[in-house]
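Exercise 7 asks you to align residues with tokens for two separate proteins.
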Amino acid sequence: MLFSCFKCGHLGFQDNCRNCGPDSKDDNVPLNPEYYPEFQYESKGFVKDLFLKKNTEKKLRGKLDAVLQKYTQFENPYFLNYMHLAGRGGYGSDDTLLLFQSVLVRLGFDELQELGNLTLKLVRTTSFRFQYDDFVERTKGRIRSNLQATLWSWIDERGSAFRRDLPMLIYYLWQNNLLESDISFSIDAVPLVSDTEYIRLHSLCETIYFDIKVGRFKTSLENFDPSRYLTMYGVDAMGGYEFEDFLVVLFTTLGYDVQTTKRSGDQGADLFAEKFGKKIVIQAKNYSDNVGNAAVQQVLAAKTFYNCDESMVVTNS
């Protein structure tokens, strides 16, 4: 199973976060609620296990099945919309979380009252699923016929973020039975790969990443044209509309689909930039003095007005 620590952000295959230590189980959330420690049998010694384990595991399985069935039932719209309202990076205040739990309990999710912090864990799992689904959407087009080619294509797009996201890639390959001859997956899938195998894969990624950087730098050395180099003095000399046109080129070069607005009455929006389904509204400010707070207020209003995911003010000042 794949775990995400909501204390430090570490991704891995152990129920304890390697960074936060053995007391991190409550913060180390699995992608699948089936792996919550509340539903795992803990040994009570050989003799007690002999008499109690079978019945205890049966009760835990019954409780787990009920929780999974209700989580599936209420995931859409309740958990998904709660995450949108609370923000994917946060989980709302304690009061908001209590209100959310009360709504679900009134709908019949009684287990949330019985199992302490289960509501928070399910919210965190929902957030983790958001993150993983977004990763899959951006990664599935990078899969090639062998491991070397796949890692090269993936790292070429992800850059240094591979260091954090490698466990998600490994889990995605295992989940979809891909490149099984190139990776030694564990038979019982807990952990999904051994420490030795993970170190091998990580080292291979580091080598590929370095090769990609060397190749890009070589291309830069061969194709750099000093006469086309744009300094901040050149940016400062631009007019307002010229600065907007410059940002269109800049964001397009960064891989965004860019759309301009009309030059006036734009409700605080100068450009829209979109990539991987995420839409950003941009206000361009080419000023000789400091940019005031009004620009921030305007672009935040434009974010709501145009239903964008993010907003930014881009300035030379």
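Second protein for Exercise 7:
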Amino acid sequence: MYKRIYYQALIERLKEPRKFIQVVYGPRQVGKTTLIQQIIHDIEIPYHYISADTAGESNIGWIEQQWNVARMRKKSINAGDFLLIFDEVQKIREWSEMVKCQWDKDTIQGNSIKLIISGSSKLLLQIGLGDSMAGRFETINMQHWTYKEIKEAFGLTGDQYVWFGGYPGAMSLIHDEIRWKDYIKSSLIDTTIHKDVLMLTRIDKPALLKRVMELSCYYSGQILAFNKMLGQLLDAGNTTTLSHYLDLLNEAGLVTGIQKYSREKVSEKKSSPKLMVQNTALMSGIKHELFKTIIEKPEVWGRHVESAVGAHLLNHSKAGNYDVYYWRERNDEIDFVLEKQEKVIGLEVKTGAIRKYSGISSFQEIFKNAKTFIVGSGGIPWEEFLLIKPNELFI
């Protein structure tokens, strides 16, 4: 079974003396449960695994009950270390206070029960990991699968990865594309919205939230002002509502709105967003057209390639400690701008015939110390670019 880079980081932490709670989070179906299964199979520490799906959301006592099971089992087998795993613990209200209480109890008693918490809802986990849990945990933020990982694990070509994206659970369905699309829409998009996003905060218009999601997928790789989005939506409310919904979808690992790059941070916040999927399967899954049809349409296929590059940049941005923007002035545009501390990189994605690079020239005139790269025709082949870590561009 394929092991992602997070495997080594987590297993090394668990081999250390008990010190921190390990929090594993990320979008749905990126392999969190598989990672934990690999860990408990290899680490040779007795364990107790339980999912919060088996408990009511208000049953905070369930956490203590499971913890007592772990303590009893540890004592009965006279184990030195014991591993307790709570999956989707954020589904239980006020879970963090009970986790803190039980963790501190073991700490005081010198009871070496190591703890893993995993979950799909980033914000709900973060709410629980507030001030009361400070100093007690460290995180592993799992991102969507990269082209390198999908290629090694499933043998997909670059074109296939651009279209089918990086959900490993859907790979067995790609030869039946209608079935694959149904899976993406029902098991990923709908499930994430209903079980993750709608749990984050009160949503007055859940149907609108779903429409914002669909619109963001359809227009991925394109700059779309909120006012124009309002024109595409019925009963849309206002731009503040749309911006808020887009933020929630971003936190769920679905889509985001990249802001315009500017020296003035206020201008960035006021700019029209460039919509971008975080996994290109979301973009392809909502469309009626099939892979063989879209790949024969250069302009449309180019937006899919650009979205794959954008998703690649976004999914590496946290680990690489850089921010992702776009840039546009009048008719000049740069597809992506990366900023890390005072270093700036401009990226232009080209999949068709090369004509001119007015965007790059204008960008270099304004930002004289910036590096620029062409990804695709006339530059770094986009398949090759998807295999590198973008942070290496800053070297």
